[in-house]
Amino acid sequence: MVQKLIYFAHGFYLAFITKPLIFEVIYVGKHGPIIDPVYHNYKIFENHPIVLKDQSFSVLDEYDISHIKSVIAHVDWVFLESIWNIFKKYSEVELSSLGCASGSPWDITIQNNQGMISKNLPIDNELIRNHFTEEY
Questions:
Q1: Tens digit of pLDDT for each residue in 90-101?
Q2: pTM of the prediction?
Q3: Rounded to the nearest 10 degrees, what angle do helices 2-16 and 125-135 cross at?
């Protein structure tokens, strides 16, 4: 679910802020867009809650949140918080459906590849930007 939320935040950021939120390449995956570093770091949790190894960091306190806010520009923090507030109500399946919908960047990329999902097939940021600009 984390990478799906990052994908949607990235798409809206491209559409409305007109620059990438992340610089990692987004690839076509079997169940939707894949961000390799996120996928590889969190795949061990499968569909279970993400649990940190050091439980002392499992809950962010006010100091942690204010530190994170000081590193992220205010406009970006507000933007990310807005994305979270919109999409937190969706399940992973619902977010997958949105990310894989007919006419989505994921779908168009597959169609442009003769309908094949192949490893390391990137989804172009311009395709993502255009989709999020037109659809939302």
A1: 998 999 999 999
A2: 0.84
A3: 80
